[in-house]
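name: query_chain
kind: protein
chains: 1
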Amino acid sequence: MLGLDGLRGLAALYVVLFHCWLYTFPGYPNSSAPPWLDGLMFGRLAVVFFLVLSGFSLAISPARHGWRSGGVGQFLRRRAWRILPPYWAALILSLLISWFVVPASHFGPPTGVTVLVYGLVAQDMVTAPTPNGAFWSIGVESELYLLFPLLLFVRRRWGAAALAVCVTLPVVARGLMAVDASPVEGDNWLAPHLAPVFAAGVIGAGVISASDRVRRLPWGWLAVLAALPVLALGAVRGSAWTVNHYFWIDLAIAPAMTMLLAAVATGKPAFLVRLLTTRPVRSLGNSSYSLYLIHLPIVMAVIRRIAPHFVSPGLPTFGFTLALGLPVSILGAWLFSKIFEMPFKKNRSWKSLIAQGSARWSGRDERDRQQTYEEQPAER
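structure:
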């Protein structure tokens, strides 16, 4: 759908900028970075946006067909086909960089347990030295895919309000029972907490099949109104407080994100849709999953292995990383996507993939292959 890929690309770009900032300036969330760069410290919210967008995108087709997924087995197989090949390729790349260039974890270099846990996409359930700090969300999203058919069932059977209550109420109850009503999150077991933001996207997809009256609502302005209290609270309490209260911030900002998606999906505001459908933004969106998967090892290698030979720590390193790590990440993601992502996006089976490869080798082009829109993950 027009605009959604562009939003995904911009969110992935923000995550790259966040990691450039994070690994340049120590002390997160009380970073040593100059205050005028504080706007780069909210990478977590970009990932939350990915999850809302993922739920929204995956639910577009079911929303048009009575909230039916077309079969649980088929849905999970298609998700695995779309997500796992580039993820496994990025895992191998990340392992090699972590072993031979720069470790990605404060637990040290990856181990055999790392290979097993991350190979099975079980990192949200089992702790192991990570080969790539961005991979945590892939584990979360994989678990949410398993939940997706159940979310559709509840939406179809009892409606949007029931779905919101069923998913959100247990999370809110858990939060209120924590010490000072502020749960401390670890490195994993995040899927239960983030299920409501994914469900918010699912609910928001209902605007696609809604009446003209609903589609004509000023979703963009409603998104701004929904976001203002959260932004005001963050501004008053400070960046560090916001980061330390992501448990609640995630839940509070999800409705605004959902309304933004509803606005773009209905073609409003027109200037934003035009921006999101420009060629550079669309291109960034097309390789956004690959960018999310491979950027962090590149950024860390630049900051910890290359920059020290040329510039001093702090702002000079940050500028050096933007000048070198950012373009290398984007160009690398484009190439990585061409090899490990797009073939699986354009083909639905090994037979089709092999046939396309054979056609290319023999000089034929199968550009007339019929493609249906299949959404990317959160990544990213």
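note: Confidence is low (pLDDT under 50) at residues 369-375.
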